[in-house]
Design a protein that fits this description.
Elements lengths: L5 E5 L4 H11 L4 E8 L8 H10 L2 E6 L1 H9 L12 H19 L3 E3 L13 H11 L5 E2 L11 H4 L17 H10 L16 H12 L8 H9 L1 E6 L2 E5 L3 H13 L5 E4 L7 E3 L5 H14 L8 E5 L2 E5 L4 H11 L3
Parallel strand pairs: 1-2, 1-4, 2-3, 4-5
Antiparallel strand pairs: 6-7, 7-9, 8-9, 8-10, 10-11
Protein name: tRNA (5-methylaminomethyl-2-thiouridylate)-methyltransferase
Keywords: ATP-binding, Nucleotide-binding
InterPro entries: NFACT-R_2, Rossmann-like_a/b/a_fold, ThiI_AANH
């Protein structure tokens, strides 16, 4: 009986990774999708699961948060424009996929990377660096650009036919979209990066944590809060977080309970943001926090209101908004 060939796929649920899987599936290869979960991307989501269902493949979530943090902290090949260590990150995902080959009875690993799509991390030299650093070498197949790259073991061994793979190059995704439509795979997310580390605003806030010595796995709750809430820094490692909306307020409440944080502010009568601090605050900082609540509440700082300050009902007078705006500029991390 002919051996059944299997492949593991790095799978975000997006256009390129889905098309890469389809191309290999059409050659009779069984594909298992691996969605890598870090603090900054990946994780259980409806879009990835719907795409896996369309493709008829098994989807596995691979939690690699702790290993990924070592890459984020100290990447061999450095970072891109922001906090994104793309080459090291892709290498780690390939390395872990390689470690899982035996467990899944698979023969090689595929990804949706496209030559030239990202100038810094997906040029020919960068793609080779990824393979070398991962230790996977010729076990990596990139179906969308395979004809423009050195043959992989899957091609050399006849597990897939190189002639049925593609030669896509560059940033345009028109060809991929046309092919997906021809396959009838129409429900896929709009092309674009899903990694927080490529976002300039988020990266600047994360850099604050790094400069304060808090870019560590044990501080991962802060990674979430700097995305969900307004972020104020009083001094090294001393932060205040202010909710932006109902969902943000809920996240703040979750972390307050989980971390047993002593300082918090929320509404006593007027709808407004929830606030927490990861540290004890001075009297001046508490006053600033109370004024922030009023400023971002329904009254916009223009009326006297009551609020709940760490379990105590207190009154905040009409806020000097000009003075507060200057303080906001001093402390807020944009």
């Amino acid at each position: 009986m002919k051996e059944k060939i299997k492949a593991l796929a790095l799978f975000s649920g997006g256009l390129d990774s889905a098309l890469a899987i389809k191309l290999v599936q059409d050659q009779g290869v069984e594909v298992i999708a691996l969605n890598f979960v870090s603090h900054f991307f990946g994780g259980k989501n409806e879009k990835a699961e719907k795409m896996a269902e369309q493709l008829g493949i098994k989807l596995e979530y691979i939690d690699f948060k702790k290993r990924h943090m070592f890459v984020v902290e100290d990447p061999v090949y450095g970072r891109g424009k922001n906090m994104n260590p793309c080459i090291d990150c892709h290498s780690l995902m390939f390395k872990i996929a390689g470690e899982l080959l035996e467990e899944y009875g698979a023969h090689f690993v595929i990804s949706g990377e496209v030559l030239g799509q990202r100038p810094m991390s997906q040029n020919a030299q960068a793609l080779e660096k990824v393979k070398k650093l991962s230790g996977m070498e010729d076990l990596v197949l990139r179906p969308l650009s395979a004809k423009l790259l050195p043959p992989s073991r899957a091609e050399l061994m006849g597990w897939v036919d190189r002639e049925k793979l593609l030669d896509i190059n560059g940033r345009s995704r028109h060809r991929q979209m046309e092919l997906m439509n021809s396959y009838g795979l129409v429900e896929y997310p709009s092309p674009g990066g899903g990694c927080l580390l490529t976002d300039p605003g988020y990266s600047s806030r994360l850099k604050v944590l790094e400069d304060d010595g808090l870019l560590k796995d044990e501080h991962s709750w802060l990674f979430k809060l700097i995305k969900e809430a307004r972020f104020f820094r009083f001094s090294k490692g001393r932060y205040l977080f202010v909710g932006r909306d109902k969902e943000s307020n809920m996240k703040i409440d979750e972390y307050r309970k989980e971390k047993n944080l002593k300082f918090y502010i929320h509404s006593a009568e007027v709808p407004g943001p929830h606030l927490i601090a990861n540290t004890d605050l001075s009297d001046e900082e508490i006053e600033f926090a109370k004024n922030l609540f009023s400023r971002y509440s329904k009254v916009k700082g223009n009326e006297k209101i009551n609020l709940n300050n760490s379990g105590n009902i207190e009154t905040v007078d009409i806020v000097d908004l000009k003075k507060l705006d200057e303080e906001i500029k001093k402390y807020q991390q944009l």
